[in-house]
Write a structure and sequence with these properties.
two-stranded antiparallel sheet; eight-stranded parallel β-barrel; about 40% helix; 10 helices; alpha/beta
Length: about 280
Amino acid sequence: MPANPFNGHTDYGIGIGLRVPHYRHILEQKPVVDWFEIISENFMVDGGRPLEVLDQLLEQYRVVQHGVSMYLGNADPLDRDHLTRLKRLVKRTNTPWLSDHLCWGSVNGRCSHDLLPMPYTLAVARHTAEKIRQASDFLEVPICVENVSSYAEFRQNEMTEWEFLTEVVEGADCGMLLDVNNIYVSSQNHGFDPMDYLRGVPLHRVGQIHIAGHSKYENLILDTHDQPVPDPVWALYAAAIQSCGNTATLLEWDDRIPSFEEVHQEALKANQFLHDHAETTV
């Protein structure tokens, strides 16, 4: 299901995240890249260098927006000012879908600047689904919600994370940005089988997949995005592709960022799994 309603019926291939250290290389060398993912909040401004770079990028490349502060899981109502500025950017980029995280992150206007896990209860799932519907109606573009990595759980949980994610996306009738690295990180931190996660969510709703690296410590794994994709995450990605089909895939690399060529080559490793899937489905 490479093209579906949740990614605007597109077939985008393999993209990489746009990061400041690579601006000059991209704008001057114009490398061949299927698409770039931008962090929406970095470009929700009235002018200046960010929009100058974005406009140059849009002349050459397809762009998809990824957000970090819609906070769909907040108890508060949606921030209309944030949505208005986000919609202005949607019209500028013509993104076929946009994504944000299934998390909460602010209270009464005070922002944590973090992606905090939610209590997995039916009431919270219904509340979040309604907010996603409201946001999608306002923005007039499909929304894919991303599963986050987590390091703690609520005692009030009534279901597993994948059951909660299913309740939310089915209730909102929205798409999923399936982050297979986040699934792996949380599975190691909380002691569940990542394949149970994959088997437990409605994969026909996956509009995009994230891959990334992480860091291992004595008692937990952190979602650091600071190194190549490890073998267990590639294995989970392969399983996801077997079920989802050739889905738009994005490599995240946000810290200790190497050269553009190294990041791009790491992302293109996903081609092998997409090729293998294509051969098995002929």
